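agent: user wants the structure for Extracellular solute-binding protein from Streptomyces genisteinicus. delegating to structure tool.
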Amino acid sequence: MRRPPDRPTPQAPPSRRGVMGAALMAALAAATAGCGTAASRDPDGPLTLWSALRGTDALVAEWNARHPEDPVVFDMVTSGLAGGNAKLSNAAQAGNAPDIVSLVDADLPSFAIDGVCADLTGMVPPRLRTALGPQAWTNGEIGGRIYGIPLDLGPMLLVYREDIFAAHGIEVPTTWAEYREAARRLRRDARGVRLGTFHPNAYNVLAAHAMQSGGQWFRTDDDGWTVDFLDDPTLRVAAYWQRLVDEDLLMVAPGSSQEWMSALAGGRVASHLVGPWGLAALSRTVPDTAGRWRAAPLPQWDPDRPVVGTDGVSVHVVTADSNRKERALRFLEWLTTAPEAITARLSSGTSSLFPAAPALVDAASRQFEPDFYAGQDLYGLVTGQARLLRTGWTWGPRMQATATSLHHGLARLTYGTTITDALRAAEAETLPDMRSLGLSVRTS
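agent: tool returned. relaying tokens verbatim.
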């Protein structure tokens, strides 16, 4: 996906179809007309912000201390489909959505198509576009238009138990072929230990592998959407992980389950694939293993052409009904580019968020103590990996429903269903969901 131009041409609000295609339907502005109450809000009143992100309370307190003339009122929400997402949908329908909301990048298209998010393309200043860069804007753009301001980057990493690797003479794999051989060796030499885990409830991880391989589950053009969960790069990913599962080289368990966390703590799983946010999460999950873990670049399909996928990043959106958009954008520019903002957000020391703005990496790195990883320069590692992030990926317009379908299929993996079967079923169930929105959809 190309970086937005420095001087965008103003355009009318997109239609429901036209969020990613030129087929005409009722404009989003018309679709949402009458359901908002922005005109009744005081444009000079405090900005309102909903977020589930760790450290937002400290960040807002810092802003309010520095800008008492332009306060922000923060409301902590829970993450996920039944938490903040449902609350935002209900609020938007009732016309009382906040000015600003944080979203997982995969949820952005859904809220944009529903008319909840404002199109910010003509409002984002060139300095902000430059400050964040193309890898970040991939997460905030839809069809070349900006609907979200990226907060962080999420290059996938290989996190591994250095002591287990050393005890069995295993070198850190740099390719997926080496990863498979390491998995075979560990299963043979270390009874009851597996190199990694396949999580049936982690569509985001499978998607990140597809990104790295060159897959494109959703594409948009002037005629609408193309859906393809079975393109050659994705099938390569599915076949690779299926083989590891079939050879009993991986633990198969849901992410965040007690079964999996117990295996991590007990040394029965020797590595983990995750984005930068997961570095701190792992240290909280298995604190008694401190000092035994290291992080490494993600293995590659082709080391001469390295690329990595994204796992777990967030964007902030300004809601379409807000009548404080310029003020909201001023706050979001500070939030994403000011050293004091990232310092406040990460001041608890319990987050390893990697900022989208390169200028904030040094400030962020000083807030996370890497003792769990034996003092390793984690932010230096991630900086290098972030340069390899795949751009141009597009999430689907009902990604939570797609994810649920995929998870249902993957949950039957140990009963004979294959990863390819799960992908095929998820694609089949995604198509009618998209068409029910009035979108023009086809398969490759």
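agent: one observation worth passing along. The chain is about 40% helix and 15% strand.
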